[in-house]
Amino acid sequence: MTGAQTSAGPVTTGRAPLLESRGLHVEFASRGRRARAVDGVDLAIGQGEIVALVGESGCGKTTLARTLLGLERPTSGSVVYGGTPLSHRPRALKAYRRQVQLVLQDPMGSLNPRQTVYEAVAEGPRIHGLAGEREIVASALARAGLRPPETFFRRYPHELSGGQRQRVVIAGALALDPKVLVADEPVASLDASVRGEILALLLKLRDELGLSALVVTHDLGLAWNIADRLAVMYLGRIVESGPVEQVLTAPRHPYTQALLSVLPESPERVVLAGEPPDPTRIPAGCRFHPRCQVLASGRAAEAGVDGRCRSEPPAVLPARPGPQAACHYAAEARDAQITRDPG
């Protein structure tokens, strides 16, 4: 995979794209330099599709999610919803946030301990001036699996279990009847016994309401169980994407292979050298090359791509549903396979 660091633009088939990032860059000032938190991302979420965004802490996942929610302004590029670029004018953002809602990982942190469940779920409908508040709250709680909903109206967060609190957070999002949920580590703070229940709820909401979702996580097992498609992020950029089963059973990018190697069933553990680089000093060439096990082992040199790994940045991956990897070695291996087996 070669070429300059320019985006080919979103190209999707199958499900129509509902929420997209196009050539997205987000930078922050850091110690007199610019940190490239999101550094050229094309990503599309189709109608009724769940996309998992995975990667190490600090890779830019949360910044990308916040930008898709309109909470951060892109330095360049755009967020597109329903074919229309997102405007950051207050009135436009308010209307947009009825359609795209956030579900946070820590329900105790996102719920006001002094508010009842009713007040927490009613907050969004009140901000947006929706009529029939009581019916909206009851319906949202019921859809989130808290039944009968009226029995939860007067309860406070500390009176609920962790799973029930997360359902209240989800109900607060559902009260606005959104089309997309952005869930940031939605089960990370929950006991293993209730994680499956929340994941099953998200799948049920997708099936019954046609909701789309972006699930931000470092947990590949969660991605396997919930996502239709997977995007792997490293140092501000998507380095591999595709249908979740294809990416997790036949990963092409060395970084994805390293992430998968920590799973118990993995035959071989890959230990990456060092920490992720400083986003104010992204390496030349492939941004993963200083830690790449394929380059370090000499396999990239054997394939004749080691020089390109160190000097030539792979192109930005377009937002298309098929499997793809931003890796010179993977591209060379793919081309060699096609040459051997052209049929």
TrEMBL record:
Source domain of life: Bacteria
Name this protein carries in UniProt: ABC transporter ATP-binding protein
Entries under CDD domains matching the protein: ABC_NikE_OppD_transporters
Keywords: ATP-binding, Nucleotide-binding, Transport
NCBIfam families the UniProt entry points to: oligo_HPY
Family named by the database record: Belongs to the ABC transporter superfamily.
Single annotated GO MF: ATP binding
Key word Signal present: no
PROSITE patterns referenced in this protein's UniProt entry, alphabetically: ABC_TRANSPORTER_1 (PS00211), ABC_TRANSPORTER_2 (PS50893)
PANTHER family reported for this sequence: D,D-DIPEPTIDE TRANSPORT ATP-BINDING PROTEIN DDPF-RELATED, TRANSPORT ATP-BINDING PROTEIN
